[in-house]
Amino acid sequence: MNRQRAEEIAQSANMKNVTYNGKQVYIQHVSDQNETARVFALDDSENEFDAQLAQLNEKSGG
């Protein structure tokens, strides 16, 4: 995922279908210093971590 799209998703009021290693995640913040985003898995909201933007995938709804 590119940085611009990750930032759009992070700022969006609507929930997007974003996955990291096959798990659905919520993007909290995109880092300005490197190609990472602060995320947490929807089924484990207490466990925040930094994920490489290249490893985040957006699935279109349907």
Structural description of this entry:
The chain is mostly beta strands and 62 residues long. The protein has one domain. It is 15% helix and 47% strand. It contains one helix and five strands. Strands 4-3-2-1-5 form a five-stranded antiparallel sheet. Strand 3 and strand 4 (44-52) form a beta hairpin. The longest helix is centred in the N-terminal third of the chain and has 9 residues, at 3-11. The chain is globular, with a radius of gyration of 10 Å. The mean pLDDT is 94.
What is the subunit organization of this protein?
single chain
Q: Report the uncertain regions.
A: none
Mean pLDDT: 94
How does the major sheet shape up?
5 strands, antiparallel
Overall domain count: 1
Q: Report the C-alpha radius of gyration, rounded.
A: 10 Å
Order of helices and strands: HEEEEE
- Share in β-strands: over 45%
Termini separation comes to 20 Å
Shape: globular
Count of discrete alpha- or pi-helical segments spanning 4 or more residues: 1
Helix content: 10-25%
Broad structural category: mainly beta
* Strand order in the sheet with the most strands: 4-3-2-1-5
DSSP E strands, number: 5
GO cellular component, one term: endospore-forming forespore
InterPro entries: SASP_SspH
Main location: other
Family: Belongs to the SspH family.
